[in-house]
Design goal:
CHAD domain, mainly alpha
Length: about 270
């Protein structure tokens, strides 16, 4: 399936390009982009693994998922610095001090990351080609709408007692759904339904903004040096996270109850 292979090749190549940058420094764009590419590959090989359990998708992805997770704390600190600069809830001196603490944390976490990677971890992403998986193209095309409809059903399933973790899982499912659709963008006759993508993207954005504030508030509260210095910022973050989650619930209810768009359209 040449169209899917082209997508896979681009993702692997770009992931490795970003990884080379990361091995030089904890560059914010490189860390973010590498993690996005790994999410895309997780979605693609997760789908392929559903078609052939012998593919052992989780095992294939494990080394790169480990790197992904090890970079998580660095990414969270980058997000926190961005929110501190955008919200302007602190005085200039307080912002400088707090950003300095977070920058020190990034350097410390990056040293730990490099120490963890050492010489025994893979320095590049290597995943089998679509052809090498042995999965027939006809099976891929046939199962794609079935798989996406199952994912969509999980996303739209109502749950009145959603926790922070529960909403975060919904966010992961939304990303997996969108990334799987996008993997087929180059395939003839498999263009994504733009109405559905727009709905998914809106929910992703709201949940992403909400999660950034939840994570940043927790991160700031975990830094003992900031105790009493950034209370106003933490309060603003928590206020915004409540408002954003309220919007998420409204849009999600509309999406879950009113969306008649099938993932097989396109």
């Amino acid at each position: 399936m040449q169209c899917l292979e082209k997508y896979r090749s681009v993702q692997v190549r770009e992931a490795n390009r970003k990884l080379r940058v990361i091995f030089e420094s904890p560059d914010e764009s490189a860390v973010h982009d590498f993690r996005v590419f790994i999410k895309r590959m997780t979605a693609l090989y997760g789908f392929l693994g559903q078609l052939d359990e012998n593919l052992a998708a989780k095992k294939l992805l494990k080394p790169y998922r480990v790197v992904f997770k090890k970079l998580g704390s660095i990414r969270e600190a980058h997000i926190a610095i961005g929110l501190i600069e955008d919200l302007e809830a602190l005085s200039g001196a307080q912002s400088i001090q707090l950003i300095g603490l977070l920058s020190s944390k990034i350097r410390r976490d990056y040293r730990n990351f490099r120490s963890f990677i050492g010489n025994d971890r893979p320095l590049s992403v290597k995943l089998p080609t679509i052809h090498a998986t042995g999965i027939p193209p006809a099976a891929i095309s046939r199962q794609k709408p079935v798989y996406l409809d199952e994912l969509l059903a999980q996303i739209q399933a109502p749950d009145k007692r959603m926790t922070v973790d529960g909403w975060h899982r919904k966010r992961i499912l939304l990303k997996r759904f969108r990334h799987t659709i996008e993997a087929f963008e180059l395939c003839p006759g498999q263009a994504a339904d733009q109405r559905l993508i727009k709905q998914i993207s809106l929910l992703e954005q709201l949940l992403g903004d909400w999660h950034d504030r939840v994570v940043t508030a927790e991160l700031l509260q975990s830094l003992p040096e900031t105790a009493g210095d950034c209370g106003s910022l933490i309060r603003r973050l928590k206020s915004q996270d409540r408002m954003l989650l309220g919007s998420v619930k409204i849009y999600f209810e509309k999406f879950a109850n009113g969306s008649e768009t099938s993932s097989t359209n396109g």
